[in-house]
């Protein structure tokens, strides 16, 4: 893996493809928006996040997985677009729940339009996702269409379960967490809708319901977990301009990331007391000094290194599961792209 | 109409039926809830509003309309339950947007569980509504099922359009409104999902797609508008214990009700200045004294009487449209129930 990850062409190729998919999906998302009123208070705000360039990873996974299993792009695009629309709906609501100020390099909807308008815009995006999904499943035979629709709802519930648990841990000041709790959390919060559903539904459509989906869950979980951990880590060590969100935002929110869970486990003495005090404060009560102190502890106690190594271990497992998950897929550029995502995430650590 | 409205048996009969439907739908809503975790932070909060007795008007309209057009109860119940679940999802989010404290006689979800948990619970209820709806449409032929599903999404968007406009009028301090603007608002905010969709989808299923749905829209709009105006009026003149929400809550929020729109049009001199000052304040800045002053003006300028008479006029039109809308429906207890709803709303004015 390391030798591939050292190949700068790989990173460029993955990012080129993600950018292409992103452009295509962004256009399709905006085309799907209803052309009605009120623009000022609903349909305008609804267009904002979909119009901002995002990673488009979910759409790319669905398209590539589907084509690798034999579907053509036309049968997949609507599904990929529906997933991205739901993702945008979640982002809008998460930004309200977290009190975030920035998203994709610009103010959040709640920051620029107020809480109520943002809430409605998130609801609206979820409904448009449902419209797009239904239209996309119409050409499928009814049983397969039902399955794609049913799994979409299940995936949305899994995401909410994770989101609700994460918020609950913060609001109820839960402290006794271990890495397994964090993995269980991101399995729900991130993996279902970021990796597992896009991969599975692509394979389902490509194989007309015959592919063995169990190995895809295992691959999707490990890959998605590494992806989420990387995202958490970028929030701690990244550059605000390229990251697009507030650096250390998770620390202000008190998010129980793997890094924080590790630190809670290993910090001792007066550091421990500082940490407990930090956890019990509200976001507004967490001063920049306090957040900096916690961030420095993460270096001193090896929590950043622990996180990086943990994710690298998960990625190695993901690489193994990849071959099993796509054993029946067609060789070609789609399979190559999917295979390159593992070293791509690896490369982004450094 | 008046003679029927004076019949106390009619009110009792309508309320008995609504109570029966409410019990049945409440049980079905709770049965549809996923049996997973986190109960504490998601599935517990999601059960709270559906477990509180509500009006069940939407479900009763769908069941009665469907049976009057020939469907059996089993084919309708899931649809009725999905509508009520979506209604509960909207209530949860509206209570966040409005900053409301009470719902159905108990604290709102956001008041008892915090904004983030309430937001997730609302999202979750909408997803369960979608699950229930899909299951309910599976026995229908595919074209009819697609239509029921598509109209459900359209109806949800209409509701959001109204909700977003109402919030926009408040946040942007919109003052130049006339009764037609208010009617347009509640057409979107209330009528689509409270009366039009339940009636239409019932007729659609009962007639296997052959019923003329246009007159049902006209009846649904007039009946729904009268219903919403009555609800607004109860917020001004009702009794907190039986009403279940905060009396004068709409005035604290600055909601542009028909009564307020009338007052804005007719108030003169210093009263007008007081009103403009009231409109421009935030909810927190509206003192009980100020709200009382505005409420008194509504009596003095005849705005309460205007509202009552306006709604009575709409109900008379609804009564005419009723016969056209249900011309092809079967006589029997379902049609009788639907017919009695018009004088029932009338009776509740007094």
TrEMBL record, chains A, B:
Enzyme class per UniProt: transferase
One of the Pfam families matching this protein, by short name: polyprenyl_synt
Alphabetical GO biological process terms: isoprenoid biosynthetic process
Pathway: Isoprenoid biosynthesis
Domain of life: Bacteria
Enzyme Commission numbers on file: 2.5.1.90
Keyword Signal carried by entry: no
Record's keyword terms, sorted: Magnesium, Metal-binding, Transferase
CDD domains in alphabetical order: Trans_IPPS_HT
Keyword Transport: no
GO molecular function terms attached to this record: all-trans-octaprenyl-diphosphate synthase activity; metal ion binding
Cofactor(s) this protein requires: Mg(2+)
Similarity section: Belongs to the FPP/GGPP synthase family.
Entry protein name: Geranylgeranyl pyrophosphate synthase
Organism (species): Mycolicibacterium chitae
Gene name for this UniProt entry: ispB_2
């Amino acid at each position: 893996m390391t030798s591939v990850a050292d190949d700068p062409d790989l990173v460029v190729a993955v990012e080129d493809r993600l950018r292409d998919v992103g452009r295509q999906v962004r256009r399709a998302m905006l085309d799907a928006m209803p052309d009605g009123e009120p623009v000022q208070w609903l349909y305008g705000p609804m267009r904002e996040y979909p119009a901002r360039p995002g990673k488009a990873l979910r759409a790319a996974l669905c398209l590539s997985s589907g084509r690798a299993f034999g579907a053509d792009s036309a049968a997949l695009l609507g599904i990929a677009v529906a997933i991205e629309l739901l993702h945008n709906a979640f982002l809008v609501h998460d930004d309200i729940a977290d009190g975030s100020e920035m998203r994709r390099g610009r103010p959040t909807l709640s920051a620029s339009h107020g809480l109520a308008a943002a809430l409605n815009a998130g609801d609206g995006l979820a409904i448009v996702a449902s419209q797009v999904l239904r239209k996309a499943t119409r050409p499928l035979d009814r049983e397969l269409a039902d399955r794609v629709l049913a799994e979409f709802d299940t995936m949305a519930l899994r995401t909410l379960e994770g989101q609700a648990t994460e918020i609950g841990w913060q609001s109820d000041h839960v402290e006794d967490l271990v890495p397994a709790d964090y993995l269980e959390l991101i399995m729900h919060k991130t993996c279902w809708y970021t990796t597992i559903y896009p991969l599975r539904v692509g394979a389902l459509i490509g194989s007309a319901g015959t592919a063995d989906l169990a190995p895809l869950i295992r691959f999707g979980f490990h890959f998605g977990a590494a992806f989420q951990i990387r995202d958490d880590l970028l929030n701690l060590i990244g550059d605000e301009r390229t990251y697009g969100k507030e650096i250390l935002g998770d620390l202000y929110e008190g998010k129980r990331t793997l890094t924080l869970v590790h630190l809670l486990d290993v910090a001792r003495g007066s550091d421990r007391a500082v940490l407990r005090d930090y956890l019990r404060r509200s976001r507004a009560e967490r001063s920049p000094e306090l957040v900096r102190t916690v961030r420095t502890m993460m270096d001193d106690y090896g929590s950043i290194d622990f996180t990086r190594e943990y994710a690298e271990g998960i990625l190695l497992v993901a690489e193994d599961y990849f071959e099993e998950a796509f054993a029946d897929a067609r060789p070609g550029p789609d399979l190559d792209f999917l295979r390159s995502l593992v070293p791509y995430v690896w490369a982004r650590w450094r």
